[in-house]
Amino acid sequence: MKKQTSTKEKVNELERMRQRTAELEKVDAKRKRAEETPALAAAHWQDTFDAMEDMVVIIDKDFHIVRANRAMDKAFAGVKVLGAHCYELMHGTEGPIPNCPSYQTFSSGEAAHAEVCEQHLGSRCFDISTYPVKDNDGTVQQVVHVTRDITGRKRVEKALRESEEKLRVTFESISDAVAVIDLEGRFTQVNEAAARMTGYTKEELVGRNVLDTMIAKKDHDKIVLDMAKTLEEGGALGIRSYTLVTKDGREFESEFSTAVLRDSSGNVINLIGVARDVTERKRAEKERERLLAELEDKSKEMKQLLFVASHDLRSPLVNIQGFTREIERSLQQVHSVLEEEDVPSAVKEKLAAPIEEGIADSLSYILASTSKIDTLLTGLLKLSRLGQVAITIEKLNMSELMAEVVDGFEFQTKEAGVKLEVGKLPPCQGDKAQINQVFSNLIGNALKYLDPERPGVIRVSGGKEDSKAVYTVEDNGIGIAPEHQETVFQIFQRVGSSTSSGEGLGLTIVRRILDRHGGKVWLESEPGRGSRFHVSLPIGD
Ligand code: ADP
User: Whose CA is nearest to atom 8 of ligand 1?
Assistant: First the structure.
C-alpha cells in the first residue's frame, strides 16, 4: 500500500515539477524579453530615424543638436552636426529667431511649422516642422526638428506662378474677346476685351449664358451647332462669322473661333471662345471694293480717252497737216507769180515781207507743231495698245532672250565702237515679247545716252534676290541727275536739252510692262559717270 502511494506521489511530484519548470521558463522568457525590448526598440527607432528622407534633428533647450539622422549628416557632409548650434547651422544666425518653429515650440509647448528659404544655404527652401518632447511635468525638454528640402517644389511653384501670370496678362491684354465657357454654355472667365466688346462688365458676364448675352438671335442655332461640333470633334473649330450683340442691342460682325479645354485626365471640361470685332475691317473691305470698282471705271474711261485721243484726233490732224501743205504749195505759186516781170515792183516789195517771212514762218511752225502732236498721238496709241494686248506668261530663258535683244543692236554697237557684255542670267517668268521690249528699251537708251567723250561700255548682269530674278543694265554714259531719276519714268518726260531722238515713252513702257508682270524697275545713276537700271521679275517655280 505504502509502495503504491509513493509511486503515485512520485508521478504527481514529477507532474508538479514539469509544470513549475514550464512556469519558470515562461518567467525567464518574459524576463529576457523584458531585458531585450528597450534595446530592440532603440535599434528599431534609430533605423526608422535614419531611413527618413527628411532631415531630423533633436534640439536641447540651448538649441544644440543632440541627435541627427543620416539625411541630416548627408546634407551637411563635412560639417560637425552633433553638438552644433541649431541656428548657426541651419539659419546662419547666432541666436534664435523669435518666429522660427523650434523657438515657438520651446516657448509654447506646441508643434510649429514654417517654410523658409535660406540665403546662406544657397537660397534653398525648407519646410520645417517642430514637435515638443516633454518631461513628466509637461516641460519641453527637447524639440524634434524635421526639415524637408522643398527647393524643387518651390521652383516649380514659382515657374507655375510666373506662367500663370504671363497667361493672365496675355489673356487680359489681348485685343480679341477671350472667354472660357462651361459645357452648359455659361461664361466662367472673360477678359477685359470681352467686356469692352459687349458693354457688360466682366462680373455681369461670368455665370451667364453666351447665347443670352453675346450672340445675336439669328445666329443662335449656328453657334449651338458649331459648339456641339467642337465638343464632338474634341479639337478646335476654324474661324466662323457670327453677328454679336452688345448689352445695348447694337449688332456687329465678328470672327469667332472655339476650341476645347481638357483637364489633366484628358476630359473636356470647358470651351474656349475667341471673338474679333471685324466691323472696321469689313468696312475697309467694302471701301476697298468700292474704290477698286471706281478705279476700274476710271481706268476704262482713261483707256477710251487714250484711244479717242490717239485715234480720233489723228484725222483732224492729218487734215491740218494736208491743208497746211496745200497752203505751202499755193504760197509757192504766189511767190512764182510775184517773180514775173509784169508785176509792179511796188507790189512785189509790199508782198515780199508777209509772203517770205510771216506766212512762210507761220506755216513752218504749224507743221512743226502738228508733227509734235503726231509724235505724241503715236506714243499714246502705243501705250493704249500696250494696256490692251494680252500677255502670255511663260518661263523665259533670259540668256537666249538677251542674245536676241543684243543681236538687234549689233549694227549700232559696232558703229559706235561700244563694248556690250552680257553675263550669266537667271530665268524668269514673263511674256516673251514684252520682256524683250523692256530690255530693248533699256539697252537702246544705254546706247543713246552714252558719253561721246569716252568709249562706251554696257553690261547686262543678273542674279536672284528674295525669290525674284533681278537684272541690271549698266552703262558708263551721261547719267541722270538725282532730281530726274523718278520723272524719267513718267509719260513723255525727257531730261534736259537732249539732242537725241525720242518720245519720252521708252521708260514709261518699261514700267507699265513690269507693273503688269508683278515686277519692278528702278535706277541708280551718277551724272557724268553712268546709270544702272535694275529690273526684277518673278522667278516662278
Ligand atoms: P526717250 O529716250 O525717248 O527720251 P525714255 O522714256 O526712254 O524716253 O527716257 C526718258 C529720259 O530718261 C530720256 O530722255 C533720257 O534723258 C533719260 N534716260 C533714259 N535712259 C538713260 C540712260 N541710260 N542714261 C542717261 N539718261 C537716260
Answer: 504
